[in-house]
Amino acid sequence: MKITNARIIVTCPGRNFVTLKIETDEGVTGLGDATLNGRELSVASYLTDHVIPCLIGRDPQRIEDIWQYLYRGAYWRRGPVTMAAIAAVDTALWDIKGKIAGLPLYQLLGGQSRDGVMVYAHANGRDVPETLDRVGEYIEKGYKAIRAQSGVPGLSGVYGIAKGKFYEPATKGLPQESVWSTEAYLDFVPSLFEALRVKYGMGPHLLHDVHHRLTPIEAARLGKSLEPYRLFWMEDPTPAENQEAFRLIRQHTTTPIAVGEVFNSVWDCKDLIQNQLIDYIRASVAHAGGITHLRRIADLAALYQVRTGCHGATDLSPVCMGAALHLGLAIPNLGVQEHMEHSPETDTVFPHSYTLTDGYMHPGETPGHGVEIDEELAAKYPYAPAALPVARLADGTLWNW
Ligand SMILES: O=C(O)[C@@H](O)[C@@H](O)[C@H](O)[C@H](O)CO
Ligand SMILES: [Mg+2]
């Protein structure tokens, strides 16, 4: 079997997605998600100009060899653009392999380790009462795990608060700027989770995304203040370039820590995992080198009792979600999978076999990862430049959004 062509499909059904489609001489095709929010065209160009020409004529079944060729052969290793491009190729090749075998991907990854993949929903509101209501709605829908984000009194435009039904952080055009106050945030967050536990008890798994906005000692303080409310995890408490910084947080709090949605290789998290400085690793199929590399990260994590909690926001396409669910169904150390509902337009552009029932998802039994793309429909949604926000402190200092 040989790769005869590979194409990039950029579409914007409410938000931008970049999809790689690999075609073969036997008519079998595979899809990979190459979406990098705010940098979509960089990955599209990396694939078009530097990767696709090298794929033509290769055997698509040689997944590992092609992965190594694209990683070692690039010379300039790692980074979000390179690893998203490699991820798209890898995911498409696994899709092809499943179709050739006539098996859903999870069967090629060791078979089911569980009946379904527990997912967590995104509940957010402008204030505590609204966030309480949103969390209650997801409990009603059967979700066992819910992330809660609320507006912070005195601050406008903080991370994670939807303006409409679907939360999308990127806005058209240039980055929007917002003002951040750590003091206001730290004084407020414990009251949100106290209210949630008073209303819903200790049953639901409650998660919270700090979104890189604290220093290590501030993160330690937050973790400590949240211990009475027993969070499932506190996510991205501080920027993770300095993996050692998490030792300081660990010394002060038992609140579990999740990190990694911005990671693109095992080297970003090797020390965090081996020193057990985190409890969940959030690297995703679409950004961390695909199924081949993410499985390596998950296997390393399993040795240290670290579980997965893969990123799954709506800026990762249904192709990534489908592939993540196959991996999540098979690996022994699944923690939870993030699930934000895509818009109806997105779901129509990307028909898929995965399902959601009572807070658990299943990838389905379709051979491959079970997600396709309606190219005719995709063409109706042209790319629209968009950028993620930027945060500053009140004195104008550039901060972490
Ligand atoms: O945990 C999450 O889902 C967030 O951190 C994301 O919404 C993140 O802000 C976006 O994926 C950025 O594009
Ligand atoms: Mg996050």
Radius of gyration: 20 Å
* Tally of discrete structural domains: 2
CATH architecture of the largest domain: Alpha-Beta Barrel
Q: Characterize the main sheet.
A: 10 strands, mixed
Structural class: alpha/beta
Tell me the overall shape: globular
Unreliable segments of 5+ consecutive residues: none
Beta-strand content estimate: 15-25%
Number of strands: 18
Please write the CATH class name of the largest domain. Alpha Beta
Straight-line N-to-C gap: 46 Å
Could you name the CATH homologous superfamily of the largest domain? Answer: Enolase-like C-terminal domain
Task: Output the number of helix runs.
Answer: 13
CATH T-level fold name of the largest domain = TIM Barrel
Report helical residue fraction: 25-40%
Bound molecules: D-mannonic acid, magnesium ion
Mean pLDDT over the residues: 97
Give a verbal description of the structure.
The protein is an alpha/beta fold and 401 residues long. The chain folds into two domains: 3-104, Enolase-like, domain 1 (2-Layer Sandwich), CATH 3.30.390; 108-367, Enolase-like C-terminal domain (TIM Barrel, Alpha-Beta Barrel), CATH 3.20.20. Helices cover 36% and strands 18% of the residues. It has 13 helices and 18 strands. The protein has helices at 40-55, 63-72, 80-101, 105-108, 128-140, 182-200, 216-226, 245-252, 270-274, 290-303, 318-330, 344-349, 375-378; strands spanning 3-11, 17-24, 29-33, 117-125, 145-150, 171-172, 177-180, 205-209, 233-235, 257-259, 280-281, 307-308, 337-338, 355-357, 360-362, 386-387, 390-393, 398-399. The strands form four sheets. Strands 4, 5, 8, 9, 10, 11, 12, 13, 14 and 15 form a ten-stranded mixed sheet that branches. It has a three-stranded antiparallel sheet with strand order 1-2-3. Strand 14 (355-357) and strand 15 form a beta hairpin. Residues 37, 169, 209, 211, 261, 311, 313, 315, 338, 388 line the site of D-mannonic acid. Pfam families: MR_MLE_C, MR_MLE_N. It catalyses: D-mannonate = 2-dehydro-3-deoxy-D-gluconate + H2O. Its EC number is 4.2.1.8. Keywords: Carbohydrate metabolism, Lyase, Magnesium, Metal-binding.
